[in-house]
Design goal:
Blueprint: H1 2-29, H2 34-38, E1 46-49, E2 56-59, H3 61-74, H4 94-99, H5 107-115, H6 139-155
Length: 164
């Protein structure tokens, strides 16, 4: 009898753990990074330009949070606060992104750059910036990363300033 009670209790504990652990990734995916709300002022989906034809897409605060995490995992070693440590003259400010050749101020153009980094004038490949191939980041992930960078460039105080 004690053995049956113990077995039932064990089964209940296992069911509880499995149920709650399977919902953790979903909860994490729905979490909004405090930086996104506090400094970017994004609490609802925002529209960002995807291309030069003014096609737009909505990005949720959760997608921007994923983008921020990807930025921290892949870019922050050289781009602290939107600055560019190897070349401080070429920051991730909106103005610098717009003046790059080709311009990198829309989601698709920034994704293209991240997939195959080029020098600021677009004349050759650069090895300063880390290439992010599809085998490393999915299209959805890299678009979230680009959306985070562009939103920070548009809204974050001090993002991409040359003096830090």
């Amino acid at each position: 009898m004690l053995c049956q009670l113990f077995t039932r209790l064990l089964v209940l504990v296992i069911v509880f753990v499995v149920y709650h652990s399977s919902s953790l990734p979903a909860q994490a995916a729905n979490k909004i990074d405090p930086y996104i709300a506090r400094y970017l002022h994004v609490t609802e989906p925002i529209s960002l330009e995807m291309d030069e034809q003014s096609n737009t897409r909505l990005f949720s605060p959760q997608e921007l949070s994923v983008g921020k995490q990807l930025f921290e995992n892949n870019c922050i070693n050289c781009h602290v606060g939107g600055a560019t440590l190897p070349d401080p003259q070429v920051s991730l400010s909106l103005l610098k992104l717009q003046k790059a050749y080709p311009p990198r101020d829309r989601v698709n153009s920034l994704v293209t750059f991240m997939r195959q980094p080029m020098t600021y004038d677009g004349s050759q490949e650069t090895y300063w910036c880390r290439q992010l191939p599809p085998s490393q980041l999915s299209q959805q992930q890299i678009e979230s990363l680009a959306a985070f960078v562009l939103t920070a460039a548009q809204k974050a105080p001090g993002w991409g300033t040359e003096n830090f």
